[in-house]
Amino acid sequence: MSSTIQFCGGAGLVTGSNFLLDTGGTKILIDCGLVQGVSAADELNWDAFPYNPADISFLIITHAHIDHIGRIPKLVKDGFKGKIISTDATRALVEPLLLDAHTLLLHAAESHQREPLYDVSDINRAMALWHDTQYHKPQELADGVVLELFNSGHILGSAMAKFTRNGTSIVFTGDLGGGNSPLLPLCENPANLKAEYLVMESVYGDRVRKEDVDRKDSLRDAIVAAAERGGTLFIPAFSTERTQDLLFEIRAMMHAADIPPMPVYLDSPLAEKITAAFKAHPEYFAPEIAARVQGGEDIFSFPQLHLIENADDSQALAKHPNPKIILAGSGMSNGGRALGHEAHVLPDPHSTVLIVGYQAAGSLGRKLVEGAKSVQIFRQPVVVRAHIEHLYGYSAHMDGAELVEFAQHAAEGGTKKIFVVMGEPAASAFLAQRINDYVGVKATTPDAGDTADIDL
Ligand SMILES: [Zn+2]
Question: Domain coordinates of the chain in residue numbers?
Fold first, then answer.
């Protein structure tokens, strides 16, 4: 049998994941994400899809990050009426994230002078098309194609999607976790997936992360040092996974008295909703964490934690006595409540901004990491006198060495051909070269719009 894959988005780009598997009789989409980054790239989100959404029977979602789900409501608006399938944990995360993205997209539409990308009613229609599944539950879609999801260890509920027909398989990895979350089980060994074809991510394809001696020790040291300075410790944090990782670790350190007792403010209504979805799906945690949650332990709550709901309370936090810890979005300080806090905290030599994880070029977070002495916030210059610390250890992605190892294991399971996607062109090309040279499997880097034939 023969099928084609079309690389509609997420080829030559980290974001905008969107792949079309056409088996001849059935069209299946894998992910339908927003393009994120510089504003010129954002405009791509308004482009028509390179297929007719009404012709698509299935949309399989690997995980709930917005660059994998953000264009689903547009797909529905443009005529998609098929079935959307993901893990139940992914589904629980999707709705609050799409509603939050809708608000941001309204601002983007205004600045590009375009119609809104979609309405809340399109989100509701998308959710009505959703069907839950879990890992390791093979199901026949149509045309003899069987779908099965496997844990990818990236965020709660994240999955690799495997499609099999007549004994031949292709796996779309989605994003791959490098085992850095204290909450999640490790990514499954791809040797066990026994797939001839792999469409794999390459975000860190050309990088090996700076190793922290110990992630939790680094976090503790940063908190202790910040408390000694007597100011505010501000942590810009992604609402999904990173915030929950940090709350879990800070709670454990408070319990053990490894850090001085001080108030911790979670200033992100979105992160609160995401945390609630995490609590509702303990079966997706690592087994020892799942057992604790199922035994009644609230792994994200502690007496010093205060949840901030409205914007007035958020602004009032600046006047609360120090030392204190504030967590707020966004993770790269691109917007959200983080900016209001940074405008206060950055000029204060007693305060600390703790940046966790990768910061994209052009983001305020990246400028701070690179040692900027002055930045612009709300079009005003803000002098940087606060201590800037950068923790690498909480990355949700495999690094370059781990990706090569992943490909090696896949090859042991029978993988013969790898399409390297979802990376900057240099990162994808570097990873593909290493897979060709060291793993001995043919790896290519398709461009956006390319089509490849496969024997499926
Ligand atoms: Zn992701």
Answer: 3-207+396-454, 215-391
Note the pLDDT tens digit of each residue in 247-305. 999 999 999 999 999 999 999 999 999 999 999 999 999 999 999 999 999 999 999 99
Per the structure block, which two tokens stand in for 215? 């992630």
Enumerate residues with CB within 5 Å of ligand 1 (an ion).
Answer: 65, 175
Fold of 3-207+396-454: Metallo-beta-lactamase; Chain A (3.60.15)
Rounded distance from Cα 266 to ligand 1 centre (Å): 22
Strand partners, 5: 21, 452
Q: Which tokens is 49 given?
A: 């899809």
Nearest CA-CA partner of 66 in 206, 238, 309, 184: 238
- Measuring CA to CA, which residue among 65, 63, 62, 59 is closest to residue 35? 65
Cβ pair 61, 77 in contact under 8 A: no
pTM above 0.90, yes or no: yes
Domain 215-391 sits in CATH at 3.40.50.10890
- What's the CA gap between 422 and 417, in Å, rounded? 17
For residue 360, the CA-to-ligand 1 centroid distance in Å is 14
